[in-house]
Design a protein that fits this description.
The chain is 43% helix and 16% strand. The chain has 7 helices and 7 strands. A 7-stranded parallel beta sheet has the order 3-2-1-4-5-6-7, with helices on both faces.
Length: 240
């Protein structure tokens, strides 16, 4: 397995304290990057600190509502003031709400999925890519989902939000690919997390993709090895 070296590169990891975000944060920091990590709640910090240990010295933490444009704009500005640049955006913010047919779903539930999975991606991309254009380089990686490729019953809002994210990636990539900026996304299937194991206790966990494995794919897309890849949605399914 290739070891990546992101020495002196600055990565902004949104949602870096979640189940996937912690592994992504650890992978980048073990690869010598400087990391700015957003989080939602203070209770998420202790688990991140226990995983990162001494690597926390290379972390800036920001408590941010990623659906609020002014908070995103300020966070991006603060990172640039500190480090002078943002080389990589790993947007790991997202969530799942399913199990309801369209006729059963409330407007609030619909908006939650669109805002959490799509609006946040738009806002952080908008303000980070502005800096990347100025500096003449950058890598942007979003986390979509397999359900963004085909709608299925009971998951309309989630499917729509992740499908929209894939289209956003394609569109943004087309806008900035000639500026030495790569925009791509990954599309995991079921991730091997504690929550998913609890919710699907009878499943074969060995077939699920691990967050640490997804993090390796994100590192590849953030590396120079991916310089010819633009607007891609890369499957990361494990054996499911």
């Amino acid at each position: 397995m290739k070891d990546y070296d992101f020495k002196d590169r600055v990565v902004l990891i949104t949602g870096g304290t979640g189940a996937l975000g912690r592994d992504v944060s650890l992978a980048f920091l073990k690869s010598n990057s400087l990391a700015a990590i957003t989080y939602h709640s203070d209770k998420e910090i202790s688990q991140l600190e226990s995983i990162l240990g001494d690597l926390m010295k290379n972390v800036m933490l920001f408590q941010v509502d990623t659906g609020d444009e002014q908070q995103i704009k300020k966070t991006v500005s603060d990172v640039i003031k500190k480090y002078g640049r943002i080389d990589i955006l790993a947007n790991v913010v997202g969530g799942y709400l399913g199990g309801k047919k369209v006729m059963e779903m409330t407007e609030k539930e619909w908006d939650l999925m669109i805002n959490l999975n799509l609006k946040t991606a738009f806002l952080v991309s908008k303000h980070v890519v502005e800096q990347m254009v100025k500096q003449g380089s950058g890598k942007i990686i979003h986390v979509a989902a397999r359900l963004g490729l085909k709608g299925i019953g009971g998951n309309s809002a989630y499917c729509a939000s992740k499908s929209g994210l894939i289209r956003l990636v394609e569109s943004l990539s087309d806008e900035v690919k000639d500026k030495n900026i790569n925009v791509n996304c990954i599309i995991p299937s079921i991730m091997d997390t504690d929550t998913n194991r609890k919710d699907m206790s009878s499943a074969d966990f060995s077939k699920w993709v691990k967050p640490s494995e997804i993090a390796r794919v994100i590192l590849f897309l953030a590396s120079d090895d991916s310089r010819t890849i633009h607007g891609a949605a890369i499957p990361v399914y494990g054996l499911v």
